[in-house]
């Protein structure tokens, strides 16, 4: 499997090179990463003059002709075995598909038919569930692709769409979770502002903006991604062609900073301020059990970031940098394995997001339990109780008097 400049991103493909025969005594070609170029004569001289170090290095490196037409040099490549990938990725994606579809499809049904009218929090959660559902529906093609050892028979257009859908889901999920975090922060730390900015119509417009902004930022990815033939095998590249790899890394880094780094920072700040406020005793505050539940909710969302999003972005950044600087073969082997092992975690958010709904909405939890046990019809329920930080139904407001004469917000406003 050749990891040339048109390599993959999490959960996608490796690029398989045509069978090559390495010089005698070197390991068989399993995967390669582009390295520096040296002539064959120079390589032989280095092996003779380098002593044991050169002999040891030859166990990991082999030579193959440079893919550039008319280039008389020979490219130095790093080979390593990736057979584990053809088991790890199909199995992990199959698990994500079964769990993600089994949890998100009923969630969409509940939001559409049993939890109307929506408040702002329910609006964010519905769009988060929709994003997860769209992604898991694309996983069967990837399961086939890896089980078939990197063979893509579905065409270039669908290859571009599947690659696009992964990042669309990934960054829409990040931004929807950030919207939920800001909404909770306003409800706890600035409740009067939450009455103004937490309206369902505004939340719906914000969700539409998230879909459009993320899609617009990812449009260049449709031009970078392509397919190529390696003998009878058709590869679905997740990055781009070798000659465009440097440009792709710059594009990918900018997208990561804009759609992950900045939202992650906002989420951490909001939750830090929320935790400080929740630990502070307040007159007329909700019972300690409600505050503990709010803190558990904060922990759940931060866990999604820590488990799904952070490892993927860190390992991907290190992997790209290692390829750009043409790191030592040993380093490339280590980074490559770690990167591929953590890639399925980026897809696992489709399974963890529904846990957020179950832990933070009492009425959602009751409706979901009823759906799983009997499936009998239930009367529509207002979704305002889905607020991730809520007061007991018999408690008084914990903020100053509202324009309605000091009463708690109506059911159309999140009880934060």
Task: Provide a quick synopsis of the model.
The chain crosses the membrane at residues 91-112, 124-146, 166-186, 202-223, 248-274, 295-314. Keywords: Cell membrane, Disulfide bond, G-protein coupled receptor, Membrane, Receptor, Transducer, Transmembrane, Transmembrane helix. With 416 residues, this protein is α+β, with helices and mostly antiparallel strands.
Describe what this molecule looks like in 3D.
This protein has helices spanning 40-49, 52-58, 85-113, 120-136, 139-147, 156-189, 191-197, 200-224, 245-278, 288-324, 329-342, 349-360, 362-373, and strands spanning 2-3, 32-38, 61-65, 74-79, 227-230, 233-236. By secondary structure, it is of the alpha+beta class. It has a domain at 78-278 and 290-371: Rhopdopsin 7-helix transmembrane proteins. The chain has a four-stranded mixed β-sheet. A two-stranded antiparallel ribbon has the order 5-6. Strand 5 (227-230) and strand 6 form a beta hairpin. The N and C termini lie far apart (52 Å). Mean pLDDT is 74; it is low at 1-76 and 382-416. InterPro entries: GPCR_Rhodpsn, GPCR_Rhodpsn_7TM, P2Y4. Keywords: Cell membrane, Disulfide bond, G-protein coupled receptor, Membrane, Receptor, Transducer, Transmembrane, Transmembrane helix.
């Amino acid at each position: 499997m050749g990891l040339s400049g048109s390599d993959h991103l999490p959960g996608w493909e490796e690029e398989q090179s045509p069978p090559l025969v390495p010089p005698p005594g070197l390991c068989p070609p399993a995967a390669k990463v582009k390295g520096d170029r040296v002539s064959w004569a120079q390589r032989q001289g280095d092996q003779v003059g380098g002593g044991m170090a050169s002999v040891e290095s030859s166990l990991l490196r082999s030579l193959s002709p440079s893919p550039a037409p008319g280039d008389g040099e020979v490219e130095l490549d790093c080979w390593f075995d990736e057979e584990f990938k053809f088991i790890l990725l199909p199995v992990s994606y199959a698990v994500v598909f079964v769990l993600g579809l089994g949890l998100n499809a009923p969630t969409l049904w509940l939001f559409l038919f049993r939890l109307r009218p929506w408040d702002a929090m329910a609006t964010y959660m519905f769009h988060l569930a929709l994003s997860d559902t769209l992604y898991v529906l694309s996983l069967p093609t990837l399961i086939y692709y890896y089980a078939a050892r990197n063979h893509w028979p579905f065409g270039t257009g669908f290859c571009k769409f599947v690659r696009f859908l992964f990042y669309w889901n990934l960054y829409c999920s990040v931004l929807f979770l950030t919207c939920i975090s800001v909404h909770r922060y306003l409800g706890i730390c600035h409740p009067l502002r939450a009455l103004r900015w937490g309206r369902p119509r505004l939340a719906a417009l914000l969700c539409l903006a998230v879909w459009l902004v993320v899609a617009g930022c990812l449009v260049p990815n449709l031009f970078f991604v392509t397919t190529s033939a390696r003998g009878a095998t058709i590869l679905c590249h997740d990055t781009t062609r070798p000659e465009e790899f440097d440009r792709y890394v710059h594009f990918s880094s900018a997208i990561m900073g804009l759609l992950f780094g900045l939202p992650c920072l906002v989420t951490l700040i909001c939750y830090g301020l929320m935790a400080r406020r929740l630990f502070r005793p307040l007159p007329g505050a909700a019972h300690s059990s409600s505050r503990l539940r709010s803190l558990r909710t904060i922990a759940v969302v931060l866990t999604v970031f820590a488990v799904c999003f952070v490892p993927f972005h860190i390992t991907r950044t290190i992997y790209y940098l290692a390829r750009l600087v043409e790191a030592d073969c040993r380093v490339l082997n280590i980074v490559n394995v770690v990167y591929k092992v953590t890639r399925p975690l980026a897809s696992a958010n489709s399974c963890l997001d529904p846990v957020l709904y179950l832990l933070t909405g009492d009425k959602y939890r009751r409706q979901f339990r009823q759906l799983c046990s009997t499936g009998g019809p239930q009367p529509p329920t207002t979704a305002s109780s889905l607020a991730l930080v809520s007061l007991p139904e018999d408690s008084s407001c914990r903020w100053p008097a509202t324009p309605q004469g000091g009463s708690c917000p109506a059911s159309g406003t999140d009880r934060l």
